[in-house]
Amino acid sequence: MAILILKPVELFFRRAFLRFLRQKGRKGPKGFVEFSIPESPSILILRQDRLGDVMMSTFLIGAFREKYPKSKIGILLGKNNVAVFPLLPFDCEKYLYSKNIIADIKELRKIRREKFDYAIDMTDKASVTSSILLSFIGARVNVGIAKENDVMYDIVVPRPSQMEVHITERVAELLRPFGIDPNSVDKRPRLKLSPQRQKGRIGLNVSSRTADRSLPPKVSAEIAKGVIKMGMNEVVVFSAPHDRMRGEETVLLANDAKIQEAPRVADLSEFANQIASCEYLITADTSVIQIAASVGIPMVLLFRPMADEHPWTPVGVPFEIHTQYPSLAALEAKPVLDLFRKLIAQ
């Protein structure tokens, strides 16, 4: 009950803060030419949101590292996505926003002492958290995408249509102020993995962040059995740590020795390498999509409707997509198997 009460209160204060920023008037955009970029600028990237967000953003971090090989690059992560850091394949400093006021004050003081030349907010939706963090960080220049809180930025890049333009193309606009043409950059996720692809191994990820984005166990079992009937060697069922029962029930209902739950692992790196061992993947979770895309795994995507944003489809790999209305709770096996059959026929 307390959570139900506090959430509207939190949203009220967030909206009030954004209205306050809009009333202050925009600080930018001032135009890129007004800012002299040092030969090796120090850059702090704000990506304190979710796993999929930071994985999707790795191509930008790589582009900055390639453009400025001697620069100090830092990334501010959150407690929800800090597990990604060991998977980053380039040199950068890690900072953590933990939502613990004492720890965060200490961390922000540490960042402020670094006197970063640029702080880049990679969110393309208005973020009160990013606005507050930028205020404390005190970088020489703040860079961000045009949105309700862009008063916080010195350099504002345009935000293409969220409905019509893929997320990678939208955040890639943040490269332009640094003399990097987004069209020249490979936008696939960049993760440090050691894929040992197993022919005929199909990954079936049944979990996502919420129940309406996850697969019903009975349907998951039907999908797994249908895949085996197509001549695949095995189906490995993946589920999130908070959702183990969904994976266990899927395997139990399938009742086939070729359909097994993925072994439990200690960290995200091990999980990502398990995903990387699959020849094909069926999934509804965007972070798993990013892992698979980084190693070129073709996949079938299962989405609930997204009313206000272009689907987070993978970049650089073959895929088929099924959108289930009103949510994945209503999913049926047949359309998924039809798409999988189409995918492997390619």
Major pleated sheet:
6 strands, parallel
CATH superfamily of the largest domain: Glycogen Phosphorylase B
CATH class category name of the largest domain: Alpha Beta
Low-confidence runs of at least 5 consecutive residues: 1-7, 26-34
Overall residue-averaged pLDDT value: 90
Quaternary organisation = single chain
> Order of strands across the biggest sheet?
3-2-1-4-5-6
By CATH, the architecture of the largest domain is named 3-Layer(aba) Sandwich
The Rg value, from CA coordinates, equals 21 Å
Number of strands: 12
Count helical runs: 11
What keywords describe this structure?
single chain; 346 residues; alpha/beta; Rossmann fold; 2 domains; 6-stranded parallel beta sheet; 12 strands; disordered N terminus
Can you describe what's shown?
The chain has a six-stranded parallel β-sheet with strand order 3-2-1-4-5-6, sandwiched between helices. The longest helix has 23 residues, at 2-24. The protein is elongated and about 60 Å long. It folds into two domains: 20-184, Rossmann fold (3-Layer(aba) Sandwich); 201-345, Rossmann fold, CATH 3.40.50. The protein has 346 residues and is of the alpha/beta class. The protein has helices at residues 2-24, 51-56, 58-67, 101-114, 128-137, 167-172, 217-229, 244-254, 268-276, 286-294, 333-345, and strands at residues 43-47, 73-78, 93-97, 118-121, 141-145, 155-157, 201-205, 234-238, 259-261, 280-283, 299-303, 319-323.
